[in-house]
Amino acid sequence: MDFNTKFTPHTWPDHPEQATMEGKNKVVGFWIFLACEVVLFASLFATYLALKNKGPAGMEFTTQGLFELPLAFAMTMLLLTSSLTSVYAIYHMRNFNFKGMQTWLAITLALGLGFLALEIYEFQHYVGLGFTFNQSAFATAFYSLVGTHGFHVCLGLVWIATLMIRNAKRGLNLYNAPKFFVAALYWHFIDVVWVFIFTVVYLMGVIG
C-alpha cells in the first residue's frame, strides 16, 4: 500500500502498523531494541540484589525502614492505568479514529506525568533523610535502577508527546501508524519493568 493512499474506516487495514514493509521492519527492529533494553535492566536488577542493604557497618538505611508501600502502590496504579489507556489508543488507531487515539494518548501522558511527580517526591524525601546516591552501595544501586527507569519514562513521555504534536494536522496514515504502535510498545515495556521494580525493590524490600 502507498503512504499517500486516502483511507476511510472501511478501507483502513486491520493492522496498519504492519501494512507496509517499512512498518514491518520498524516493528521487528524495535523488538530487537527492546531485547537490548531487557539486558540493561537485568544487569541493574542483578546489581541491586547483590548490593541491597549493603553499606558501612551499622548502616542507617534498610529497605524495611526506608520504603513505603502505599506510595509505591500509588505509582504502580498510575503506570498500569497508563498502560491500559495506551491500549485504548492503539485500538482507536486500528479503527481509523485519530481523535480517539489522540485523546487516549493524552490521558496516558497525564498518568505518566503523575507517576513522575510521585517518583520525584520520593527521591526528594529520601535525599532529605540523607539517603543520597553516594551514601552507600545500596543507595547507588537503588537510584541507578529506579532512576534509569524514571529516565525511560521521561523518554516515553517526550516521544509520545512529539508524535501527537507532529501529526496533529496530518491524521493517520501508513507512515505514522507504525510510529504510534512502537511508541505504545515502548510504554508497555516501561510498565512491565516497573512491575518488576515494585515487586523486587519495594514489595520484597518491605516484607523482607
Automatic annotation (TrEMBL):
It is found in: Cell membrane; Membrane. It is a multi-pass membrane protein. Keywords: Membrane, Transmembrane, Transmembrane helix. Residues 1-206 form the Heme-copper oxidase subunit III family profile domain. The lineage of its organism: Bacteria, Bacillati, Bacillota, Bacilli, Bacillales. Pfam families: COX3. This is Cytochrome (Ubi)quinol oxidase subunit III. Belongs to the cytochrome c oxidase subunit 3 family. The keyword Transmembrane helix applies. The chain crosses the membrane at residues 28-51, 71-91, 103-121, 141-165, 185-207. It comes from the Bacteria.
